[in-house]
Write a structure and sequence with these properties.
This protein is of the alpha/beta class. The chain has 3 domains: 5-257, HUPs (Rossmann fold); 262-394, Isoleucyl-tRNA Synthetase, Domain 1; 403-444. Helices cover 43% and strands 15% of the residues. The chain has 14 helices and 15 strands. The protein has a 4-stranded parallel beta sheet with strand order 4-3-9-10, with helices on both faces. A 4-stranded antiparallel beta sheet has the order 5-6-7-8. Strands 12-11-13 form a 3-stranded mixed beta sheet, covered by helices on one side. A hairpin with a 2-residue loop joins strand 14 and strand 15. Helix 5 crosses helix 6 (231-246), helix 8 (286-293) packs across helix 9 (306-325) and helix 10 runs parallel beside helix 12 (377-387). The longest helix is centred in the C-terminal third of the chain and has 20 residues, at 306-325.
């Protein structure tokens, strides 16, 4: 088993993952008040593939990705839609599962819901109140930040920059730094639970602490992950409340992915610059979306545009063309060059999950094989593609078009029906690049093998 290490956000140092113990990974999932955008998909892809790689190296891994299904944003969105908040949350949770299923990466090992973890959340808050780290005030319960001497150790922020971002109107907190663990029921909030402090519902941060502890088990978690926008206040508050309650480190390694950016601005619903994952999948296909999301180093911001997704599709086509036309068929023994390339590919993933470097090794091997000096290359490339969630690029199309090609054909037909001929032509070109020619006939459009570009 090779050493796998990642850069830890808290220390700024490269931290190896112990091979002898089970690896518990908790990655923060979405708040389900609307469909997720492609930026929300980045942590899902990063941690799904990182977990896959660890398992391929022989690690025992449990990946947990939660769903926040009770939250201020859900109340607001449900009120705007004129439906109960639980109904909105259930519908958007189902949409989240559908959209991420289409990525073709499988599901995390556990996907807890906040609403299914209320008992453990209340118990954790009660422990904090009993130990003096939290207090009740007017039906709310707050974490006393100054009771935890190490507060700020994750984000390394000075105290004056510790604005919690909560609505403090009518708040009875003792200190502006404190944050809510339990929020008293307010008029118009149609989902709430009974607690020792009165009816209400949990704060965002305590939900994740409880779900992580319930699903992963004993602390510390091996890895806690999520988007870099969660470092403060969400993850700072998680580690403070969990360590104050348990007297143990919350996570050994903090692993944060960079944001998806449009014109150097973080993609977010509040900025109004979102591109829904479902739309990206409809227009460009699963393979292009996954390839795009692994094209940059996970810790760095990743620029987004439709042109960049088209470039990802073009890179995929280079791989598909190679796998279709390479002289050897099926599994073959790895020659020395192919074996060395595969080893360097794995080493790149083992060193802070460097997918751009791994992709570079893959394309270097294709170039070498095209020169006739790597007879086992298709076997090595197929193994690489599997670790990147792109094994479909190595599959034969002899049995006909795959589900992705058929989805693109359906989208092309929908565009034609809407008289959006520019979009229909674009999708026809995408299919041509995948090696499929669109034939229009009296019974509708069909796909026949063509010349891949």
């Amino acid at each position: 088993m090779r050493e796998v290490a990642v850069k830890d956000t808290m220390s700024g140092e490269r931290r190896p993952i112990p091979p002898e113990a089970p690896v518990g990974i908790y990655a923060c999932g979405p708040t389900v008040y609307s469909r997720i955008h492609i930026g929300n998909a980045r942590p899902f892809v990063v941690f799904s593939l990182f977990s896959r790689f660890l398992k391929s190296e022989g690690y025992e891994v449990k990946l947990v990705v939660n769903v926040t299904d009770v939250n201020d944003k859900i109340y607001t969105a449900a009120a705007d839609a004129g439906i109960p908040s639980a109904e909105l949350a259930a519908g958007m949770t189902e949409a989240y599962f559908e959209d991420t299923d289409r990525l073709g990466l499988g599901r995390p090992d556990a996907e807890p819901l906040a609403t299914a973890t209320i008992g453990p959340i209340i118990d954790l808050i009660a422990d904090l109140v009993e130990s003096g780290h939290a207090y009740e005030s007017g039906g709310d319960v707050y974490f006393a930040v100054r009771s935890f001497d190490e507060y700020g150790k994750l984000s390394h922020r000075p105290t004056e920059e510790m604005e919690q971002g909560e609505d403090d109107s009518g708040s009875l907190k003792r200190d502006p730094l404190d944050f809510a663990l339990w929020k008293a029921h307010k008029e118009g909030e149609d989902t709430f639970w009974e607690s020792p402090w009165g009816p209400g519902r949990p704060g965002w941060h305590i939900e994740c602490s409880a779900m992580a502890e319930q699903e992963v088990g004993s602390l510390p978690l091996t890895i806690h992950g999520g988007g870099s926008d969660l470092v403060f206040p969400h993850h700072e508050n998680e580690t403070a409340q969990s360590e104050a309650a348990r007297g143990l480190p919350f996570a050994s390694i903090w692993m944060h992915n960079g944001m998806i950016e449009t014109d150097a601005e973080k993609m977010s619903k509040s900025e109004g610059n979102i591109f829904q994952l479902s739309e990206a999948l409809d227009r460009f296909g699963r393979e292009a979306v996954v390839s795009y999301l692994v094209s940059g180093h996970y810790r760095q911001p990743l620029a987004f545009s439709e042109e960049i997704l088209e470039e990802a599709a073009a890179r995929n086509q280079r791989i598909r063309n190679f796998m279709r036309t390479a002289p050897e068929a099926g599994e073959s023994e790895l020659d020395e060059s192919s074996a060395s390339s595969l080893e360097r590919f794995r080493e790149a993933l083992a060193d802070d999950f460097n997918t751009p470097k791994a992709l570079s090794e893959l394309f270097d091997l294709i170039r070498t094989a095209n020169q006739g000096s790597a007879p086992g290359a298709t076997t090595a490339v197929a193994r690489m593609l599997d670790l990147l969630g792109l094994s479909s690029l190595a599959e034969s199309d002899e049995s006909g078009p795959d589900a992705e090609a058929l989805e693109l054909l359906a989208a092309r037909e929908a565009a034609r029906a809407d008289r959006d001929f520019d979009e229909a032509d674009r999708l026809r070109d995408v299919l041509a690049g995948m090696g499929w020619e669109v034939r229009d006939g009296p019974e509708g459009a069909s796909l026949v093998p063509g010349q891949a570009s």
